[in-house]
Recover the amino acids of this structure.
């Protein structure tokens, strides 16, 4: 348990904060040098390292009324680990950057750290190091960079989808978006499990290496929405992706009690789901994956042949 | 040259911005998968990777009146590369995270990118990937995670300094702090070269592997000030460090014309210098390094035997 600590960062020192953070962090035998020096040193037995980075920003990716520090820690780890899984790899270690206004409480920082440590420990991921920076009040950013390895399989990129492949997902669609809508509407009691998933999405990370081993031709994780992320595979591979309303209906049905007519928007455009999206030759779809469409001639994402506009999150204006 | 682009991020799209950023980025043969997929994949011939992260925050680490986007890009790369050098290593690749309010101009983002790309190219460092996130207006954070290798030498940590070792620095002291003081005083014409160094510190990165090869017993880079960072070596090694006023006098002299009586404060406490600080057995100090003191019995940093309070930058209150 974290002792309550209502002090702000302005009332503590970097050194004191780090002293309470370091002992909680998980490690593993491949970590030759861990937290506390200029850099960490991590063994890479396969001779090649996967690397990715993803951030969460207060006021955009979370608000304190809806998410605890531990929720934020879990979520930002999951986002990064899903990106590693989306190449067919397994994460070995992360570095964490916290940029926080001096008005941030020490308790929040400790909760964040517990969330990061717990989420990493659950996947045998080491926290290798990090960086603390002060910022103007009201600013809080958590950035993680994750390192991983392929363990013998080839990296699965976005550009290998071929006409005739099937399109499949490793898990749910739209749950995170549906949970967010309940928070926004103040009706969280309609489906607390969706709200919980929005706060701490759980990614089925083993599906990534499974897909690689099975021969997936393209693979990524759904962070910005099925249509938008599907378009990324379509563009990179020079193909079209035709989603099937029939195949997607069960995903929408599961959300209808909670969000009614918004269920389809959640399924098609909901981000932060971290389900994996892949294309496979017809006969090799691994267990636990669900078919949602087909790779076709073309250059965009369609639903039963109909073009889909937008369909997800863009960070800026467009 | 960057075409002027006064549009803000609210008036562009993530995709459009990325399309202008990607072509500028340097790569190298070890990059098996670069920007544009879920993760990058980098060969690590030595079988172990160094990893570090460091950030710059608008309003704390820079203000737009004093630094261009390109200045910020150069500086944040240098900070990270100096951390790799401070283990005795060489940087191979970086990932970049930009968190920016929608009020940020496209032109600024492009300048930042040019600065990062130029600084990396100069050191044969690949930009492996990154992350763009929107943020509330007035927020801008640039985080870099750098990967590197040791190329056969052993990592030099902070905890190996032994009583009787000499203490040496690889380059200047206090230049960045002196430059900042001139900016704050509006007297930049007194020493434009110090102001330029504050905006774009140049680190003698080869000094890190040189020190490792020569047998340095402890090594780090001066990012928070000579006394504060020296204390980190002292604490980790369980020794004292006694700095010599006589040996430091030439460093202060060089700053006196510009900042007068503040010269000693710059030398002892000035951060963001990214000069390397090392301890060596007496007889092995490499060429180009300057002696500044001795490792002694004790537990803190002294100047001619006198205790030094504070002596540098703490991110928070303490």
């Amino acid at each position: 348990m974290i002792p309550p600590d209502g002090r702000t960062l302005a009332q503590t020192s970097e050194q004191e904060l780090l002293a309470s953070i370091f002992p909680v962090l998980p490690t593993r035998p491949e970590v030759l040098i861990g937290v506390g020096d200029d850099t960490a040193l991590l063994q890479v037995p396969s001779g090649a390292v996967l690397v990715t980075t993803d951030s969460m920003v207060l006021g955009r990716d979370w608000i304190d009324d809806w998410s605890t520090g531990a929720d934020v820690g879990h979520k930002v780890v999951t986002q990064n680990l899903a990106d590693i899984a989306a190449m067919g790899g397994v994460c070995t270690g992360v570095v964490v950057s916290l940029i926080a206004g001096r008005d941030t409480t020490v308790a929040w920082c400790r909760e964040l750290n517990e969330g990061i440590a717990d989420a990493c420990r659950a996947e045998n991921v080491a926290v290798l190091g990090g960086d603390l920076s002060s910022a103007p009040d009201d600013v809080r950013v958590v950035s993680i960079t994750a390192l991983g390895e392929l363990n013998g399989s080839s990296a699965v990129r976005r550009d290998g989808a071929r006409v005739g492949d099937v399109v499949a997902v490793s898990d749910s669609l739209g749950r995170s978006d549906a949970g967010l809508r309940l928070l926004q509407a103040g009706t969280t009691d309609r489906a607390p499990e969706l709200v919980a998933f929005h706060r701490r999405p759980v990614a089925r990370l083993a599906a990534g290496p499974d897909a690689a081993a099975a021969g997936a031709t393209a693979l990524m994780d759904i962070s910005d929405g099925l249509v938008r992320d599907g378009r990324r595979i379509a563009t990179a591979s020079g193909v079209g992706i035709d989603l099937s309303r029939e195949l997607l209906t069960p995903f929408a049905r599961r959300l209808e009690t909670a969000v009614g007519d918004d269920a389809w928007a959640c399924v098609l455009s909901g981000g932060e789901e971290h389900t994996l999206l892949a294309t496979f030759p017809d006969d090799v779809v691994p267990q636990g994956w669900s078919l949602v469409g087909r790779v076709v001639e073309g250059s965009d994402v369609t639903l039963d042949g109909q073009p889909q506009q937008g369909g997800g999150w863009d960070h800026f204006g467009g």
